[in-house]
Write a structure and sequence with these properties.
Length: 607
């Protein structure tokens, strides 16, 4: 009897509940990495952790998706301080990790659940909070994440079902950072500016070639990143992550692998540019380090999730060790950004677009042996990979040149009716002022021509740049020339001074040629529309009068008719020649970019 009672006591009083309480395996671990939890199940696990460690973990809402789901961040802080300003004041650094922006690529979600558990429950990684606060978005593209299917990612090796790349309106959130079309991006920007993290990570899973690496990552450190930050990333963070992740039993590449030729890895690794439509490109404008993590799609789910775990763990270790350095680097980057435009006449150039300059450095590529043959199916070369290691030193396109640059003005001025353009600046929390009375003065203004819009849609628009994806045909950005002139701006015009932390956002949005500018995304399309035109019988008379008054014009016209057969054959073009040179055409202001560049704020009536 006594034994039996003891057994019962053990069974009910201690054994089972204790065992249950100790089962902190994540949902992915419970399934042996066969499945990944849906949003509700992931939140249930996170709520359980928060309930068990309320002094260390807090879960906050930061907005809603298009379909109305709650966007959440999870905060792990060693002393129960969850207020960003208080954390910054304490001298600790904040890491923000974003997961599942492409919701079929959810490895980071399951890695973050395990890492949080190891920091606050089992405490095997508790030291990662000594000088750092770990903040993560478990699922960013929730609407895509809940569109679950085994058939969402044809190239990917598990889990059983997964989410979709686009959001609820089929937009790619990782092309939306600059134009901010979606509620998710707008919520992100508000949350980001409330937290002002010291380091940002965006977790993905690759497409592309097959190779040995399971963890690949890139941290921007080019000439568009503050020099101190770039040096720390190149010399410390990037090599140290490679070493630490490798020591943990994974194969890490310190760069995202982009092959020059998809069907022939031996041709080497290509150049990666990071314009602000991408999350990590946006980080350059925010003066913060940003890391793209890409787990390799063909590795099994356990290898990928644990690899993602290790790269985040290693980064937190570096951030803990270098916390005060990182805080100083970010302050320096903010201060440098706020100086842009303060000396507009010193001709210092701000890079808008980077390109490969033709230089390569040798890169020890850990690939797989492969064969190439002509395919009877596609009619093109196809590559077939073995799983036999092939280590080869290949050329890696590392040389960078500034392909496009501008001299920042002191400020931009734009009439208030361009509400869509101004609204995007406001979504980015760019500081703006308004003129208090009508103002006429000297500005620089662009006149633009020769634009060719992309035919098939790209991210729900028809922008003026080369598209991505099947069927997309590149458009063509024509030419914008800058002239200094006297112009009038009514009271209430918006003035964007560059003397601010977010100066780079304003420059990238308002310089028409910048890769993700408002003009390229189509926000200024109406300026290219001619609204009035001349009837042929009116222009006939006008043409004769103009030629009679101006022999040089007559000669120019006749020469054009002689030398340009297409022009000569088009009655409309021949008449338009005279209309374009008449005062009536000038009033159409076709191609006149309405944003002025102010070289000084002297005399501009701003409050
Ligand atoms: Zn992705």
């Amino acid at each position: 009897m006594r034994i039996c009672a003891f057994a019962i006591a053990l069974f009910f009083g201690v054994g089972l509940p204790a065992l249950y309480a100790q089962d902190w395996r994540t949902p992915a671990e419970v399934s042996e990495y066969r499945t990944t939890p849906d949003y509700a199940e992931a939140l249930t696990y996170l709520d359980r952790i928060a309930a068990a460690a309320p002094s260390l973990v807090k879960i906050e809402d930061f907005g809603k998706t298009g379909e109305g789901r709650d966007l959440k961040i999870v905060i792990a802080s060693k002393d129960g301080v969850f207020d960003p300003a208080a954390i910054h004041a304490s001298g600790r650094v904040i890491l923000l990790v974003q997961n599942a922006i492409h919701a079929g690529e959810m490895d980071g979600k399951d890695a973050c659940l395990a890492l949080l558990r190891d920091i606050v429950i089992t405490k095997s990684k508790a030291a990662l909070l000594d000088h750092a606060v770990f903040v993560f978005i478990p699922v960013y593209n929730i609407d895509g994440h809940e569109r679950r299917s085994p058939y969402n990612r044809i190239n990917q090796n598990g889990p059983d079902v997964m989410g979709w790349r686009g959001n609820g309106t089929n937009l790619n959130l990782n092309r939306d950072y600059m134009k901010a079309d979606t509620p998710e991006t707008r919520a992100f920007l508000k949350m980001f500016h409330r937290w002002m993290p010291d380091f940002f990570v965006d977790d993905h899973v690759t497409d592309g070639a097959d190779f040995q690496y399971d963890v690949t990552y890139t941290i921007d450190a080019g000439p568009d990143v503050a020099p101190g930050t770039a040096k720390w990333i190149r010399e410390t963070v990037t090599p140290e992550l490679e070493k630490q992740v490798g020591a943990a039993g994974h194969v890490a590449s310190p760069t995202y692998i982009t092959l020059v030729d998809d069907t022939d890895p031996a041709q080497g690794l290509g150049f990666n540019d990071d314009p602000p439509r991408f999350s990590t490109g946006q980080m350059i404008l925010e003066n913060r380090p940003g890391m793209l993590v890409e787990l390799h799609m063909l590795k099994d789910y356990k290898t990928r999730v644990t690899g993602n775990y290790e790269v985040l763990r290693a980064l937190l270790e570096v951030m803990n060790r270098d916390a005060s350095k990182l805080i100083a680097l970010n302050a320096e980057a903010d201060a440098e950004a706020a100086k842009l435009g303060s000396h507009p006449l010193d001709n210092s150039k701000f890079p808008l677009k980077l390109e490969w300059n033709g230089e390569t450095t040798p890169f020890l590529f850990r690939g797989y042996k492969y064969t190439r043959e002509l395919s009877a199916v596609s009619g093109a070369m196809w590559v077939s990979y073995s799983h036999e290691p092939w280590n080869a030193t290949l050329p890696f396109a590392t040389g960078v040149k500034v392909a496009l640059a501008t001299t920042p003005p002191a400020a931009y001025i734009l009439p208030k009716q361009w509400t869509h353009v101004i609204d995007v600046l406001a979504a980015h929390d760019v500081a703006m002022k308004q003129t208090t009375s009508d103002w006429t003065g000297k500005v620089e203004r662009y006149r633009c021509e020769g634009m060719d819009w992309q035919g098939p849609p790209f991210e729900g628009r028809h922008p003026i740049f080369g598209g991505e994806g099947a069927g997309a045909e590149p458009g063509k950005f024509g030419h914008c020339s800058l002239t200094t002139e006297t112009a009038s701006f009514p009271a209430g015009s918006v003035v964007v001074e560059l003397h601010q932390r977010l100066s780079k956002v304003a420059i990238h949005w308002l310089e028409p040629e910048a890769p993700d500018s408002a003009m390229r995304w189509g926000f200024f399309d109406p300026i290219f529309e001619q609204k009035e035109y001349g009837e042929a019988y009116v222009l006939e008379k006008l043409a004769r009068e103009m030629m009679a008054k101006d022999p040089a014009l007559k000669a120019e016209f006749e020469k054009r008719v002689q030398n340009d057969p297409r022009f000569a054959a088009s009655p409309d073009a021949r008449l338009e020649f005279f209309y374009e040179r008449s005062p009536w055409f000038q009033e159409n202001r076709v191609g006149l970019y309405p944003v002025g560049r102010l070289l000084s704020l002297d005399g501009v009536p701003v409050e």
